[in-house]
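Feature request, filed as a ticket because there's no other form

It would be nice if the structure record came with a short human-readable summary line next to the tokens. Right now we just get the raw output. Example of a typical job, pasted below so the devs can see what we mean:
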Amino acid sequence: MELPATDGFSSANLIGVGSYGSVYKGILGRDENVVAVKVLNLQLRGASKSFMDECEALRNIRHRNLIKILTSYSCIDFEGNDFTALVFEFMPNGSLEKWLPPKVDGNHQLRSLNFSKRLNITIDIASALEYLHHHCDIPITLCDIKPSNILLEEDMNAHLGDFGLARFLPRIIGNSEDRSSKVRLKGTIGYIAPEYGTGGHVSIAGDVYSYGILLLEIFTGKSPTSDMFKDGLTLRQFVELVFLEQVRDIIDPLLLLEDEEVKASNDNGNDRDKKRRLQECLVSLVRIGIVCSAELPRERMEVGDVAKEMNVIRQ
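Raw output as currently delivered:
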């Protein structure tokens, strides 16, 4: 099998940069299938281990909301250097990071997500996490849930990607804190569970925390690393302070604009009822985000319960 054509790993084909390497758009095989090629920078400490961990994690998992690996390469390149790469299915709409916040070019809005698309993405991710935590032979914690690791198909179905920090956990019956690993890890500021920063063990509750922050980011339109969060104020604290009485004050204005446009186009009883239901849905979603991102692991929701509640909201 030939190496996927990336035009010599041209910057024109660069679609992402991660902790241990870069991802390029490429062409695979005679059928010229478009793929994503993740090339590891083996000069970085931990890159080889990340490659092995990612291969091991992806080897036996199958779920509609997990990125699919097609093949891998490990060889010597034409300059005599070690070359390692993973080849994944290509996601035409890129990562969620490219949609949050919406990208604007002049007066033309290029990328934005309406309420239903945001809700479907959060349900897709909850479904993937439920599978990893509870339906694999050995539970897997992803350890790095953030917008850049959520990839979107053409129809906007979401896939979790980048298993470079994934960890296998012992299957122990009990609360989330018991299902833990003594492996220390790095994470992403703003999304990593607070217990990891104080020497805590890796657990599925850490993924739930990251999911909670992601949920709040998607519906408020505010990044946890925004400049507005300083002097100890976090995204979760900001949301928790006002969400019950003034949920509309913390929701992404684009979602409220969408709601107002519908109302203005046909202001009748049905639309007022839809507006009330939307308000109830937003309160429920923000509440789930707050509980999932609780400071203490034992106070967070189980991801299975999250998936159930999210589907009730969609219905």
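Something like this underneath would help us a lot:
Helices lie at 47-59, 115-134, 204-220, 235-246, 253-265, 269-292, 303-314.
The chain has two domains: 11-89, 96-314.
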